[in-house]
């Protein structure tokens, strides 16, 4: 299972505001993400699942701003694909929390 962080930035939109594009990208993710876990953050989106599925969804997300009129799109992807043991977004967070001496608190 892989975890990917993706940031998609439309360029040439005529505005510095990108929230409409981000909302559209999230809709694409929701429609395409069967079998994937994902989390929207203030600076990027984290996607967890099989690598081929992640890359397919990112490809669709990358194309979305062009359909809204963007003239250029910059997409940055970071992939963590660990194969020696099963990992997840939650497992990674819990590992750090244990090292900090705490657990998850409500």
Automatic annotation (TrEMBL):
Q: Which domain of life is it from?
A: Bacteria
| Pfam families noted in UniProt | Thiamine_BP (PF01910)
**Where in this chain does the record put each Thiamine-binding protein domain?**
4-97
Record InterPro entries: MTH1187/YkoF-like, Thiamine_BP, UPF0045_domain
Q: Which Gene3D superfamilies match?
A: 3.30.70.930
Instruction: Enumerate the residue ranges of region (Disordered).
Output: 82-106
Gene Ontology cellular component list? cytosol
UniProt lists the family membership as follows:
Belongs to the UPF0045 family.
- What is the designated name of this protein? MTH1187 family thiamine-binding protein
Q: What is the species listed in this Swiss-Prot or TrEMBL entry? A: Cohnella candidum
């Amino acid at each position: 299972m892989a975890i990917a962080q993706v940031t998609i930035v439309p360029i040439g939109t005529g505005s510095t505001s990108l929230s409409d594009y981000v909302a559209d990208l999230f809709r694409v993710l929701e429609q395409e993400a069967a079998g994937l876990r994902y989390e929207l953050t203030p600076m990027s989106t984290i996607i967890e699942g099989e690598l081929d599925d992640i890359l397919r969804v990112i490809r669709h997300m990358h194309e979305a701003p062009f359909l809204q009129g963007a003239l250029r799109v910059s997409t940055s992807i970071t992939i963590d694909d660990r194969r020696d043991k099963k990992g997840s977004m939650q497992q990674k967070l819990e590992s750090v929390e244990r090292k900090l001496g705490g657990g998850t608190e409500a």
